[in-house]
Amino acid sequence: MFLKILPRIRRPTRSYAAVLAARHEGFAKVMQSDLMAFENFLGQDAVKKDDITNHTTDWTGQFKGPGSVVLYPKSTEEVSAILAYCSKNKLAVVPQGGNTGLVGGSIPVHDEVVISMNKINKQFSFDDTMGILKCDSGFILEDLDNKLAKLGYMMPFDLGAKGSCQIGGNIATCAGGIRLIRYGSLHAHLLGLTVVLPDEHGTVLHLGSSIRKDNTTLHTPHLFLGSEGQLGVITSVTMTAVPKPKSVQSAMLGIESFKKCCEVLKLAKSSLTEILSSFELLDDATMECLKTNLGLHPVLNAPTPFSILVETSGSNEDHDMEKMSAFLDECLSKNLIIDGVLAGSSAEATKMWQLRESAPLAVTRDGYVYKHDVSLPLENYYELTNVMKERCGSLAKRIVTYGHLGDGNTHLNITSEKHNEELEKLLYPFLYEWVVDHGGSISAEHGIGQLKLPYSTFGKDPEERLLTKKLKNIFDPNGILNPYKTI
Ligand code: FAD
Ligand code: 2HG
Ligand code: ZN
């Protein structure tokens, strides 16, 4: 077998953030004449200059940019007009969906024009035999799920931000979430996109198709999956949805060691097989943080070092219950779990999911959070937490780990009262070097944005980075789309 040896990762020698934060002088500043032009082709109500902080601050409150103006186009044609105008006039822009991204990708760094997709949410059609959805990109994920539920379907992915994030943002970040173990990544579901390019014509591209199988050409819509608003603005999405399960079972398991968590995962895969739909981990520090910061109490009787939330989704409750019960019995008889609760009602299941889905909010209440979203081989998954506990000592307020264990994706969150330079120096680049040295990825599902830009070369073949930059130049010849980030 041919093994490609990657060159040793390049270490940053100075603060990249400081270098990248400088405004690019080639960009024009938004003038009164530009605002008038925007009002001309979008209407007055679609141009907002004041009270725009909810568009210029991210969900964590840790990324803020001044911004200049927020535009609310209502159609692909209006997005095209904006991009043509901005490209001709060298005005930098940032596309924004629900603004729930966690890497600072959706907010302006300087005075970029924000293109909010909030109003592009009218077109919706669904083929309920083939399970194919076509909709505007500004639809909120939860709204799509509710619409599909009436037709017996659901979106193939789910995340804690579902009440605010948009399908266009989900595609742009290639969102993962809590059902990936069952339905696969968005790569498996995306069929087609309408995209507007940031060139002088505001070129509109209709990529892919609305049929399930199409190998006519390169799979161009997939270039935009995880493109983080760097290549074009997505205005419409065509993708598959999945039948809504008729039976959903949830259980919370208390486990004494991480090794046993992995054994339980192996058993869940082999015994729950096709109905296993989530396998999520919360460690004891996460539980403590949920209690202290949000007043949320565990569902298990006594604290355990690890809690696993396991869920099945199927079509026959008797069958699924039988499988879940046999799985739990085997966990007990093999001494893999200390404690376990099977949700007896949807209210009990909701309580379990509330714990898992509130973890991102709970950590923010500590003050400042160093967030991490990394993939690792399972043997190193929790080792990272232990290594960082030892390294940070008492400098960190809290070190908590939750995540999508079934996908090898850990969210290690390290908190402090406020931004702490000494702690930050201990964390980076050490943490990302450690991840790459152990065969992991520094971004499992949230992307690079501003947060990880200094480390974006870590673990990546330089030729691949070069190819990415060439692609960016083809799509965005003037470099006006979402500058200072990702690529
Ligand atoms: P935004 O935050 O608005 O934008 C994200 C990026 O996409 C930006 O670079 C932006 O420029 C670009 N973009 C947005 N819309 C478009 C468009 N129409 N065209 C082109 N580019 C666009 N992520 C996960 O993967 N899994 C999780 O489990 C998960 N859980 C979360 C839980 C919470 C509580 C929160 C706050 C966030 C979570 N996230 C998760 C992160 C976030 O919700 C996802 O990244 C989501 O897909 C972002 O969608 P959005 O519409 O909010 O995009
Ligand atoms: C989740 O899985 C999200 O809850 C957010 O991806 C992760 O808060 C985080 O670090
Ligand atoms: Zn996640």
From TrEMBL:
Protein origin, superkingdom: Eukaryota
Annotated GO MF terms: (R)-2-hydroxyglutarate dehydrogenase activity; FAD binding
The protein's required cofactors: FAD
UniProt keyword terms in alphabetical order: FAD, Flavoprotein, Oxidoreductase
Pfam families: FAD-oxidase_C, FAD_binding_4
Keyword Flavoprotein in annotation: yes
Catalytic activity entry: (R)-malate + A = oxaloacetate + AH2
Function: Catalyzes the oxidation of D-2-hydroxyglutarate (D-2-HG) to alpha-ketoglutarate. Also catalyzes the oxidation of other D-2-hydroxyacids, such as D-malate (D-MAL) and D-lactate (D-LAC). Exhibits high activities towards D-2-HG and D-MAL but a very weak activity towards D-LAC.
Family: Belongs to the FAD-binding oxidoreductase/transferase type 4 family.
Protein name in UniProt: D-2-hydroxyglutarate dehydrogenase, mitochondrial
Gene transcribed to yield this protein: dhgd-1
